[in-house]
Records
---
Amino acid sequence: MGIIIQQVSKNFGDFQALREINLDVKDGTLVALLGPSGSGKSTLLRTIAGLEQPDRGSIWINGQDTTYLDVRDRNIGFVFQHYALFKHLTVRQNIAFGLEIRKTPPKLVKEKTEELLGLIQLEGLGNRYPNQLSGGQRQRVALARALAVSPQVLLLDEPFGALDAKVRKELRAWLRRLHQEVHVTSVFVTHDQEEAMEVADYIVVMNEGKIEQVGTPTEIYDHPATPFVMSFVGEVNVLPSHVDLIPRNAKVREGAAFIRPHELEIVPLGAGEGTPAIVRHITHLGWETQVELELGDFEVTAHLSREQFLPLNLTLNQKVLVRSRNARFFSQVA
Ligand SMILES: Nc1ncnc2c1ncn2[C@@H]1O[C@H](COP(=O)(O)OP(=O)(O)OP(=O)(O)O)[C@@H](O)[C@H]1O
């Protein structure tokens, strides 16, 4: 079951926001729509929700054709970037709201509300008002409110976008655990590749209204299907394929070579094979060090772990050798 999107296109005037999207979101999975601003992520999410109508194509939710079904009849839970809690209701009343307007018996409302307060780990804060909560707590309440009515599908549009980096990171881990408990089919929009990697079972990479690739976080990172995906889901050096530092065992193809910074190795002069390079900048990033190197006409960026970096004793303008453990080739550049 889950969500099946078939040949969905959507125009805003002359602008094509979605181009023949085909996507299968398996039942009970958490899928991230990842892409740069304007790539069509929110439009696709809003189309699944019924807040936008596709111009062509169809959307099936749990076996039902919902393409033209009213938004209220889709039984979808929605969480937006900006907390849409009712200010004049307490946390408990906010969570209970959807159940009460559905005329759920009071005993059931109470049970469900307490269960959800436990699930979002805010048991002690049920009587507070939204303005007495932190941003992260408010988003947890928004999620509980969306889950209260047992939606068939949960849609989240940059739910942690307005929060600071530390809280975002905590909430990602929390959402992952929560999803493992509730297993509702969920689609999550983000432009943050780290967030998508950490939270999702599958990532859908979007660009200019099209899907570039669908895969697990590991598949997307290790086997990017296009230069766009390779560049979007992590840093990358793009070099002409004839450049020397490409590993000998790599099958050199036409086009450009894509090398991740952590795939580069630095070797002291005389200590092995490699392409001569000059150290131009060293930046300490905490758990790793970024070294920018000049190789004739090109610059490359290497990321070294502390263990790799310290024994090298690198200094600015030092001559070194550089080589790559890996490279991928694409015929066109992103
Ligand atoms: N109601 C609308 N009318 C006209 N153009 C729109 C409308 N909604 C979206 N668009 C355009 O469609 C494109 C895709 O927008 P969308 O919001 O889906 O992108 P996104 O990938 O979610 O970007 P962001 O991360 O910035 O939210 C954008 O160029 C946007 O300007």
Note: The first strand starts at residue 3 and ends at 12.
---
Amino acid sequence: MTLSSIKACNSPVIVALDFNDKNKAIELVEKLNPSECRLKVGKEMFTLFGPEFVKALVEKGFDVFLDLKFHDIPATTAKACVAAASLGVWMLNVHASGGQVMMQTAKKALEENFENPPLLIGVTVLTSMDESDLAGIGVTKSAAEQVKMLATLVKQSGLDGVVCSAQEAEILRDAIGQNFELVTPGIRPEGSDKGDQKRIMTPKRAIDSGASYLVVGRPITQAENPAEVLKQINASLA
Ligand SMILES: O=c1ccn([C@@H]2O[C@H](COP(=O)(O)O)[C@@H](O)[C@H]2O)c(=O)[nH]1
């Protein structure tokens, strides 16, 4: 398959490849089609298998979300974003709590270095956290209020969207509007295991609530037939 022969992706699903075994990941990827899902590479696989693994997925024609959640001083974050973008990824992210200057500097560096820069999004509140976890780090707002506050800062910083839970999608669409990507992990098809996720939603409800993209990891990667689960999720959204 050549890159030019691959159709654009028709699905909002981003499959989170969280494996410690590259062969297992590739075995799954071989069963997937770039027109039916995007892929996410996170800290585990990037640390183990590095840029070459990411480039191999891009070469296969997949839109790749490099989920490294950069959070550092502005200059360091900007240089990390430029390095990530040089791998040809479709989307990358920083933590919104790094602040406006950090986010603006990263966005500017991408625009200055790439004709077609990848989408840059800000992580708001991790979907594994609820109000009691927020209280533990000194945040007394509700998860929804904290997400709204950080998402507003992300928008003001000129980024393309946020990572949030689908539970906040309606609130963010009302507050920020349509021209802003809402990338939502914590997606759980009916009956699937929550794992360590706390703010969850089904794929259909997430899309109906205004999510742009659905990040789905274990419900697909740990399934006996991952391609069939992906097919069912895509069908549930049609
Ligand atoms: O708030 C966040 C940000 C990122 N993630 C990542 O998404 C996937 C979710 O995987 P599941 O197996 O579907 O729970 C995982 O790679 C996380 O690192 C998130 O869950 N929440």
Note: The beta strands are 13-17, 38-41, 64-70, 91-95, 119-123, 161-163, 181-184, 213-216.
---
Amino acid sequence: MTDPNLSPALKAETLVEALPYLQRYAGKTFVVKYGGHAMGDPEAQADFAEDVVLLKAVGINPVVVHGGGPQIGRMLKRLGVESRFVDGLRVTDAETAQIAEMVLAGSINKEIVSWIARAGGRAVGISGKDAGLVQAEKVGRNDPDPLQGIERKVDLGFVGEPVAVDRRIIDSLSRDGIIPVIAPIGIGADGHTYNINADTMAGAIAAALGASRFFLLTDVAGVLDKQGQLVTDLDPAAVADLRADGTITGGMIPKLETCVAAVEAGVDAAVVLDGRVPHAMLLEIFTKRGAGTLIRKQR
Ligand SMILES: Nc1ncnc2c1ncn2[C@@H]1O[C@H](COP(=O)(O)OP(=O)(O)O)[C@@H](O)[C@H]1O
Ligand SMILES: CC(=O)N[C@@H](CCC(=O)OP(=O)(O)O)C(=O)O
């Protein structure tokens, strides 16, 4: 809600400040990854939906890819299934894959569609399975074995990574004024359902669309250094350093890997943002003070 005490002049100034950005971004595609940790209270969800609908209203094509890690974790716990992660990826057996699909494509996906509808927008919720959007392939990972000092192969089960993106369904929805909302589930050439890390899924889609901006909304201010201070700008080499010295761990690893892959594939810039901050995305896009961590090919 706008502060009622804000002077009319200041309100007008904010709108005028947005003008060059509105001109620059009209017709461009923005991929927005909405993480499970960022899905906070109903007010934050309503703010997020308003931001996405506003982008569409000013001629930008937003494409939402969502996560839901914590929500899958809660469901697995209720069902008495244990969660295990390797490098931020959930080890996914056949039962876990089924539950992940239920939570992601069944529940969260439709919730986001409802929020967007409530904000006055039109959205269609799909997963990577629909219209052959994302073809997945099983992920392989190596884990260092501290006892033997060698790499050990870890089987993550039905964890997939996108190997091909068919953008046509996104293009037709966007052309028809509809906001695509995508769950990170894909299908393999082997016919299996694969659970895909939502950051990886969003990055592959951003790359396939040649997006101008790729936003990753999470539950931290951005990438933090060892002292807990916000790092405002990164390039691929700096990301590699942060990973090598252990500054980034857990879910931040696939997040930054995907940002690097996206900018190397031609996305102009990726931004890790605090999705709990009201209208974080609008402030980042339409005002001079940026927020979060910006990842570009060159700093
Ligand atoms: N250097 C770092 N800076 C910020 N967050 C970090 C860092 N290293 C690890 N993290 C963790 O990464 C998390 C974000 O990734 P993740 O949990 O996968 O979020 P999401 O569900 O939004 O994708 C943060 O909440 C934080 O705990
Ligand atoms: C393989 C893998 O780890 N898949 C993720 C998919 C959801 C996700 O990535 O959600 P967030 O963006 O909220 O973390 C998972 O099962 O948690």
Note: The mean pLDDT is 92.
---
Amino acid sequence: MAKGSSDTPLMQQHRAIKQKYPDAILLFRVGDFYETFGQDAVVASQVLGITLTKRNNGSASENELAGFPHHALDTYLHKLVKAGYRVAICDQLEDPKTVKGIVKRGVTELVTPGVATNDKLLEHNRNNFLAGLHFKDDNQIGLAFLDISTGEFFIAEGDKEYADKLLQSLQPAEVVFQRQYQKRFKETFGHRFYTYALDEWIFDESFARENMLRHFGTHSLKGFGVEEMSHGIIAAGAIFHYLKETEHPNLQHITHVQRINRDEHMWMDRFTIRNLELVGNGNSDQRCLLDVLDNTVSPMGARLLKRWLLMPLSDIGKINQRLDAVEWLIAHTDTRQQVQASVKQCGDVERLVSKVPLKKINPREVLHLAKGLQQIEVLKQSLSQQNNDYLQRLADALNPCPLLSDNIRRTLVDNPPVAAGKGNLIATGVHAELDELRSIATDGKNYLARLQQSEAEQTGISSLKVGFNNVFGYYLEVTNAHKSKVPDSWIRKQTLVNAERYITPELKTYEEKITGAEEKILAIEQGLFDELLRELQDYMAPLQTNGQVLGILDCLCCFAGNALQYQYRKPVLHNGSALMIKDARHPVIERTLAAGEQYVANDIDLDPEGQQIIILTGPNMSGKSALLRQTALVTLMAHMGSFVPATEAHIPLTDKIFTRVGASDNLSGGESTFMVEMNETASIINNLSSRSLVLLDEIGRGTSTYDGISIAWSIAEYLHHCPQAPKTLFATHYHELNELEEKLPRIKNYHITNREVGNKIIFLRKLAPGGSTHSFGIHVAKLAGMPPKLIDRANEILSWLETKHAHDNEEGQSMQQKVKQLQAPKTDAQMQLSIFDAHTEVFTDIRSMLEAVDINRLTPVEALLKLNEIKNKLK
Ligand SMILES: Nc1ncnc2c1ncn2[C@@H]1O[C@H](COP(=O)(O)OP(=O)(O)OP(=O)(O)O)[C@@H](O)[C@H]1O
């Protein structure tokens, strides 16, 4: 950008402001436009698709420029922030009409992904958290999460695993932390978050505490239960500082802070959240559990449901409270429908309330809040009479704020406009002067009509008309034919081709009254509206509580509706350790089956004292993964307080669900390495407890067969022998693991049944005791359209390998013995290649090509390409 004293005053002002926000795109208001200059203009033109021009602003060099009309701000702001930019909005702070010289300008808001308050930047069904993180060391991390658009504020503390789980569960839109921890943050939590680094001095306990106490107006933080959480408080302090830095001074809607306790929730780590497909991954084709369960009718409900899903409860009392309420709502259809109708009509109470201190709420939204309060009154009355404790308590917490509601409805007209500044929003009878001015304004207009008539009669000018223009206001117009009848007292103002225009002193007096009245009307209306907003601020806390209660009611009704619609049943949560689910189904797959297809339900029993570990084998595509996942999903749903897709479910209180899927299932995330698989498995082994549920899906398949079997075997052994004895489902293609059943008492083999008809498999999908003998991988290859020659050859090799395996066994080598000779398979690999004549160069090539292939990780298409390569070599 051009610099120097030859800049215009406007550009000098721009440069001074831009210096304060070097890492943000500065939207600089000039007249009716927001302009960007220099590098900002280059970026804005690329991201927004607006024209980039160059102009010489009175300086020696050219300056890039790109702008858009001010009324398009919301649309363009949204695009810039979504593209990952921080955007500083610089407005004119004075009315240009009243200023001589350059208008004062200043940044009124710095918008970043985590501090967005604009409707367009927010998704109604998800929170938009800004997270603050304070690293003390790996075992002491303070966290704070604030959704400025709803006022929800949480504090937590824990080690890095716990911090990771919280970040996964609350999925903040932006994370701020100490500058010198940038590398550590990426190493620990990956690259998935939008981050911003802050100076170290901000992360100071007394500074943070002071900030919090000043904000809440309290002497200590004891009332919030967070007094002792120094690291969490420091993280919260960083958030407050960041809000100040981004010009967000109006935070009266943050009325309290809540602590998140580690042991109050059942935890899932990021792999489990992903493997169980709980929330969408941005791939709209794939349905996730949240899609199926979310039949809420309000934004508060939708946001809360997501939190319930990612942070299920671990307190039986609280879970049963939800389950009983859901059961009650199922039995009382009328009340449920009435609750849902009321919740729906209330709108997004949380976000509307948060707009009050920001002065972003419009008259129509204020009236909406008041109408919501009427619904809350109805809800409160209806629920407090019902015989369900939890619903009654929720009803008690609702506050219809009658004074506020009455006042709003009395003050505003029935259908107020969206914009506050244009008048017509205050009802008649609210303000005497306003009513009088309004009658002057309307009467004034009537007067002009009467004046036209009487003057016409007095002067005999039948063509007389009263008109108005911006140059000299109201006038009397007389056609040339009647010009001679005009009295001397009239003052001529304009001569037209066919007519003359005059003003009279009387006309001007009335004109002043009318226009003065209109200006005054606008000012009084604005004043009254501001007063309403001030009154609303006093009700911030009860209004927010209403929003939260409405969210809970919405979720409970949603669970009741789901139970009825999808035939879910009430689970029994218990403090024991045995898990028993009868006729369990996968809630997502059963919703996506083609018409006429029926989901095959299965029973699952796991018990640390009996059947602790199930080794599950079965053909490819038979439903092993589905069975594992449905067991986890039923357990999870029960901990949310939802009914479950089963006919009966006895669920032990579970502290953690772990799932690991063999590496090649995760190719897309660039995390396909065996190392990742092993890291993940190691984290299970190191974090499990006797209350954990462990699901292992084809663990070990990311490496050579013998390595894989050995590792899978020893993991199963470890889980069996470890004192925590976690309930485990282990799906595998390694049939060798079936030998474990004979050796270890709490390991049981199961398989998923199928029937072979001719050379076809029919999947019966029923779980049955005992292992299965082979995988039908070659059959799947055939289904995928591999050439018959290739399939025949694969069958030949398979039977050769099976004979060889049987022969080895005859020689008395059990699998366990083989596992002990871990390295042997590497040299043994030669046997697989004796099928080729290795004397020619071509075959040596093919041999090394095949040696390099890992069949376990080869997709059908890759196999075809390899085959094509081999064929070409033979040519
Ligand atoms: N119980 C069931 N009832 C009906 N359809 C099912 C059932 N279980 C699984 N399916 C269907 O079969 C498909 C394959 O299931 P799944 O992925 O669980 O197989 P798998 O045995 O784990 O296969 P692979 O070993 O190849 O990973 C599912 O996507 C689903 O459409």
Note: Confidence is low (pLDDT under 50) at residues 664-672, 818-839.
